[in-house]
Amino acid sequence: MTEKKTPQLDELEKGPWPSFVSEIKRAAVKSEAAKDLLNLLERSYEDKKGHWKHGGIVGVKGYGGGVIGRYTDLPGEFPHVAEFHTMRLNQPSGWFYTTDKLRQICDIWEKHGSGLTNFHGSTGDIILLGTKTEHLQPAFDEYSDAGFDLGGSGSDLRTPSCCVGPGRCEHACYDTLDMCYDITNEFQDELHRPMWPYKFKIKMSGCANDCVASIARADCSVIGTWRDTLTIDQDAIKAYAAEGLDIQGMVCDKCPTRALKYDAAKQELHVIPEDCSRCMHCINVLPKAVQPGQEKGATILLGGKSTIVQSAFLAWVIVPFMKMEAPYTEFKDLMRRIWEWWDENGKTRERVGELIYRVGMGRFLREVGLAPVPQMVFRPRANPYVFWPQDEIVK
Amino acid sequence: MQGTANPEIKAKILAYLETVEKAKSKEIAQAIGEKKADVDLGVKELALEDKVEYLYITTTFVALKGKVGKPN
What we know:
heterodimer; A: alpha+beta; Alpha-Beta Plaits; Sulfite Reductase Hemoprotein, domain 1; 5-stranded mixed β-sheet; B: alpha+beta; Arc Repressor Mutant, subunit A; 47% helix; 14% strand; globular
């Protein structure tokens, strides 16, 4: 246990919830780095300032990402965290592991690092917290032998991530697990050799429930949808009604585009296909009765991100529907066109959404070769979102 | 990034990086008058040869191996 007192951190062990302080204390029994980490954090609480800086080294031989250099600004006082680098490992699609593999990951990290991890980082990687520079290459070599590779960091393609998809969800409109694995293998250079103005994230959700929150957290969101119309089982609707579910109130009145009509006398539910925005609400409430359509694929959105140069953005629709089947050629070609345009026009640390915001969606669409379509805007007739260039206007 | 990098471009990248502390690939391409994609490929090979390294300082830069120290 730690020798120094940590009264402020101890407060964070109280209550019914798991405590990160308790976990660091457990790690501190075996790790001097974890012990110093605990004491450094207590010191930060006393000083009301963080004592970390980051940057510098970013990888192992040949890699430009996957390691984030971390240093304390109090190395004399806390020598075991003078270097406390983070390593990111590329997680399997959908975060499926065997317990044996998890033990292997942890055993290697106890040997080369602090023993502390985050499962998982916000991009989806396995995050390994705290190692020294001299351990980076040996740790990487052992993880590589165990079948793992580094994830992305810096100005590269960040580790693609996806929801569990058809692995254990009936709503998946395409195989998110396969697509994530496929594009991770396809874009290895983009993932490991940072070459762009800044980071680029791709996240894949199998349906509009968007369990990986791709619309807010990814530069490119691939969200499962269907092109035809909802499939409704009227017998199952009658069963829900017989159970007392308020279909009008809980389903139709909460439909964001009022695309559902319920005939209470006949106990039948009908959809107005052209008004349906495929939001998944009715499917979530009536999963036994309402299903996605038959012609499935994905909507491609671009530009989501947290605050950097500009404020936080939700992603914009750029392709309302694309079939999502291996080998995903259409998607890969689109990505390459977008990256080339962004690399050519983007300023340093400017995300692709910020570049589009700066130069305009019209220019982006023209130069990347995408047609403007009504699905790109919330109210197409009320919001002149895509402007015609002067030379294309017939007067 | 496909194929093998042009040795002349790799030499120009190394020569340019001698003159600066660190640079983005795009800046290198502009400075040596080569296509960005060719520079990216050259940097990739030079990193594998341990002659250059990637650095993260608010964004990713390229520098000659060992030229930039730990952050102050």
